[in-house]
Amino acid sequence: MMRRWGLALLSAACGVLVAALKLSQGSTVGAAVLLALFLFLAVVTSPLVFPRGVLAAEAVAGNLPIVYWRPGCPYCLRLRARLGPEADRLQWVDIWKDPEAAAIVRSFADGNETVPTVVIGGEGFVNPDPQWVREKLQTA
Questions:
Q1: Helices assigned H by DSSP within 25-129
Q2: How many CB atoms lie within 10 A of CB 96?
Q3: Long-range interactions of 109-118: CB distance < 8 A, separation 24+
Q4: Angle, helices 130-139/74-83, rounded to nearest 10 degrees
Q5: How far apart are CA 71 and CA 46, in angstroms?
């Protein structure tokens, strides 16, 4: 659990520390801006920006394409952002939450836990271009 939220909590803590330093220097506006920036970074690196996740067993049993991801992954965040509302047409599985999901990713990525790994029709694609995923979703 802590592993999934670690980067987000670190970002928030750094923001509070930097804002406190700025406040001690008398810069209220600077403190507010930096705190807002760090809190935005904390939200972006947290699991909150991803659709509700499922376990690997549920995802494999379903008919939707699957995205295996992990919190804090910039490539996963890029895929999520570029898909926009289309992201809800995929099943999202957090490999840090589900060891079975991590094993599935390793089977597609030569033993590595490289994410995002997108599985469409039983075929895995490691770190695919978001536009390619969007096109595959439109044809599926």
A1: 28-44, 56-61, 74-83, 99-108
A2: 20
A3: 113/70, 115/68, 115/69, 115/70, 115/73, 115/75, 115/76, 116/67, 116/68, 116/69, 116/73, 116/75, 116/76, 116/79, 117/67, 117/68, 118/65, 118/66, 118/67, 118/68, 118/79, 118/90
A4: 40
A5: 6
Tens place of pLDDT per residue across the chain (140 aa):
567 788 889 999 999 999 999 999 999 999 999 999 999 988 887 888 777 789 999 998 888 899 999 988 899 989 998 998 888 889 999 999 999 999 999 999 999 999 999 999 889 999 999 999 999 888 86
What pTM does this model have? 0.74
How many residues would you count in the chain? 140
